[in-house]
Amino acid sequence: MSSTFYPLHVAEVRRETDEAVSVLFDVPQDLASKFKFKPGQHLTIRQNIDNNEVRRNYSVCVSPHENALRIAIKQIPQGAFSTWANTVLTAGSTLDVMPPHGSFTWNFEASAKRRYVLFAGGSGITPILSLLKTGLAEEPESQFILLYGNRGSNSIMFLEEIAGLKNRYIGNFQVYHFLEDEEGEVDLFNGRLDKEKTLSVLESIVDPSEVDKFFICGPGPMMNAVEETLTAGNVPKNHIMVERFTTDTLSPKQLDAARDLQKQAAGKTVQVSLEGRKRSFVFDADKGSILENVGALGLPAPYACKAGVCATCRAKVISGKVEMKANYGLSEEEVEQGYVLTCQAVPMSDDVELDYDA
Ligand code: FES
Q: Least enclosed by CB within 10 Å: which of 44, 109, 299, 331?
């Protein structure tokens, strides 16, 4: 994964709802291969706001076949970047952008005949829409059901586009909207996608035993509710893919465990490779993580959330033992392949070697 930021021109800032805009980037020809993406991936933006450098990750909301790079940004209360993007950012601006990455993606196959169920909540629709549009275009024999929760009808992002997909792919695609603050005639669609609602959905709309893949993205409580209901209903874990934007606060027990790990890691030697260069250091537990230690050396290690969610700080363990305090951003396959989130990682042996370029 490239850890370099590239200045990209903003071609369009389009208002999607009262609280959200989408941003279309102009990708110059010489950067086209670097900015190629898979459906569902996200990118990191770096921006100086009020003399503070902020970094944020946003999911791409288009499909690769659209030949465009567009993200959507929902304004959140006190959100420095999202507020700036919704109120100040205009076409013609330039943003520092890292090429798209992330494992919340899927390889659709033209000959496959599968059933997909996509749960989205609020701005969690962005990677889901990217996957949905790609799947509909690339897997014509497959079935897609979108279950999309929002507060009210005026906060539904991409409402018209989704309705257009429903008309275009009439035999392959069904969408159901769930609204928290508005009451419609059918009780099932009133209220949030909590455990009870998910259970009702599984009883009336979706037979989980017939579904090949569930994709989930939205607010934490919604994702937990859907994921827990699916696993309680014996859906195998490898049939469920989850993309988190935020994390739950760590419990006091988890915090204690994280501090313990840091203490054990103190004084261990670590070597990192970044952009072809190698550097060794002795782990300073007070700095917290390998990422913070690398940053203190002045190396441009990639990061965005620093909370174990976005996987921007991913590196591969080449040797030695490394533990993570938390991991919300790596898939099981990535962990098996030896990847760690360096913002959460601490060395547990003296021969740790990590490669950011792998
Ligand atoms: S910086 Fe986001 S997971 Fe490490």
A: 109
Compute, in angstroms, the gap from residue 306 CA to the centroid of ligand 1: 4
| Band (251; pLDDT cuts 50, 70, 90) | confident
Measure the CA–CA gap between 88 and 86, rounded to whole angstroms: 6
The domain in which residue 87 lies consists of 6-97
Q: Can you list the pairs that 160-164 forms with residues at least 24 positions away whose Cβ atoms lie under 8 Å?
A: 161/129, 162/129
Q: Which residues, 6+ apart, have CB-to-CB distance to 118 below 8 Å?
A: 128, 131, 132, 144, 145, 146, 147, 214, 215, 216
From the centroid of its chain, how far is CA 308?
A: 11
Statement to judge: residues 229 and 324 lie in one domain: no
226 and 256 housed in the same domain: no
pLDDT band at 270 (very low <50, low <70, confident <90, very high): very high
- Cα dihedral 124, 358, 313, 340, rounded to 10, equals 90
Can you give the pTM of this predicted structure? 0.89
The verdict on residue 107 lying in a domain is no
Same domain as 123, residue 141: yes
Q: Which atom of ligand 1 is nearest to the CA of 310?
A: 2
The neighbour count for residue 231, using CB atoms within 10 Å, is 13
Is 61 close to ligand 1, i.e. is its CB under 6 Å away? no
Q: Residue 27 class from Cβ within 10 Å (0-12 exposed, 13-18 middle, 19+ buried)?
A: buried
306 Cβ inside 6 Å of ligand 1: yes
